Amino acid sequence: MSVISSWNLTISLNTTLSLSWRSSLPSRAIFPRPKKSKTLVVLAIALGAKPTVLVSEKLGDAGIQLLKTFANVDCSYNLSPEELCTKISLCDALIVRSGTKVTREVFESAMGRLKVVGRAGVGIDNVDISAATEHGCLVVNAPTANTIAAAEHGIALLTAVSRNVAQADASVKAGKWERNKYVGVSLVGKTLAVMGFGKVGSEVARRAKGLGMQVIAHDPYAPADRARAIGVELVSFEEALTTADFISLHMPLTPATSKMFNDEAFSRVKKGVRIINVARGGVIDEEALLRALDSGIVAQAALDVFTEEPPPQENKLVRHENVTVTPHLGASTTEAQEGVALEIAEAVVGALKGELAATAVNAPMVPAEVLLELSPYVALTEKLGRLAVQLVAGGSGVKFVKVTYASARGPDDLDTRLLRAMVTKGLIEPISSVFVNLVNADFIGKQRGLRLTEERIVLDGSPEKPLEFIQVRIANVESKFASAISNSGEITVEGRVKDGKPHLTKVGSFGVDVSLEGSIVLCRQSDQPGIIGKVGNILSEENVNVNFMSVGRIAPGKQAVMTIGLDEEPSRDALKKIGEITAVEEFVFLKL
């Protein structure tokens, strides 16, 4: 076999995801670009026809005026679901905020005319993305315009809790004058932990530094150089909890961050800490926060977001004396609303013109025959990306990624854009709230400073199967699982499709064979009898089903890597017991 070419997607802008190498990748490489697909652009307006845009919720005037330069604009607010379904068949685009539910019924009622849905804001929980994609409708959002507004609101709540502003205001309005009761604390010299060092988090840090605070931040994938540039130290989650006087939350809501602030986390914070949340309600276990407030572990909390919005009237957290609340006002400034209106109007107009929107959150149409052939490889590449990024130790940045495709097909017979997008998706989505697809993969990677290089290896044999194996390598990073580092010094995972299903076939330099379903435990062990049985017994006691297991070793009696596929997630106690087995040298649990 021979390496014939490599395509370098040199993407390097500084944002939240960064990487650095031990060895250098070539700054330029040559790879024939795949043939352009005529089906890539799926949005087109009939020649000479002026499209109709339905705006179902209040939008800033600047955005409305921009839309009117290109389309007929119908501003119809407070539509019932039935009224929306009736109107939508006459519209080419729909713009909503958070109050309009764009359900499957809406897309079905559009009868194929609706080409783009624009969400004026970040969250898209109110749009049925799956139905949109099935009906060939692009969904775009406006993720950047409210950054400063959200950061300013975080600072407003920070200062409010430090000086008991809300409580003192209510007291005076009740006819009281309780100066001694509402003595506050100074911000100067206090430590603020910014949890999530993305756009909003970094802007909060800048402003807190101006108030004389010591600022630390926790974000396993934030570039250390960007933090240092504004005088912020990146620390572990544990250090952030135990040293902060104030904690400001700015992480996305993902499976990894859901209820991250729970009883266990609150048990480790400095007594008297103050919590501010302008991110997502679900990152805090609200019952646990209530207990921490009642016990005095947390002195005060300021919340702009809640698990359920609006929260029930009987919500004890909202009514707590030491909690300051606002009704999700993070983006609610005149300037932010105008910015969001312009951003979403530009995205919708661009999509109606047939341009690929950088803020798209779902994929364009892909030819059925191509999707059918690549479908199992799409799943494989995404899961390899997810595995690889989870193997990166906290604090290590991810900047250089190399994807190798081994195939008997010629360069012109295999379009890898979809596969590349899925690797990017797997690398970024587990640690971000963004949605990555064929439309926005390169844009999102560029935002996060990700430099992805593709390499093609031509194999002898029949080209009937599109790919023999796919390998993903992350360079110059530390690993949670040392055995995942190959001889080249990179985190390396490799997989192939077997019987239509993705399989992991290599970790580091160890050959393995496990179906990529559910979750995975990787164990490095001394190669000796009985280890598989011990691990199996621990998992069976927890009613965790093992769906696949394999062991790869260097040589008999030497080191081996055991790979275990699980249907359920084991408890921390079970994982701890596995780690306590004498022959187990290291292990890691990975979610797929």
From TrEMBL:
Compartments, as annotated in UniProt: Plastid, Chloroplast
Catalyses which reaction(s): (2R)-3-phosphoglycerate + NAD(+) = 3-phosphooxypyruvate + NADH + H(+)
Pfam hit, one: PGDH_inter
EC code(s) of this entry: 1.1.1.95
Annotated TM spans: none
One MF annotation (Gene Ontology) recorded for this entry: phosphoglycerate dehydrogenase activity
UniProt keyword terms in alphabetical order: Amino-acid biosynthesis, Chloroplast, NAD, Oxidoreductase, Plastid, Serine biosynthesis, Transit peptide
CDD domains (alphabetical): ACT_3PGDH-xct (cd04902), PGDH_4 (cd12173)
Keyword Chaperone included in the entry's annotation: no
Domain ACT: 520-592
Family to which the UniProt record says this protein belongs: Belongs to the D-isomer specific 2-hydroxyacid dehydrogenase family.
Protein name: D-3-phosphoglycerate dehydrogenase
Organism: Gossypium raimondii (Peruvian cotton)
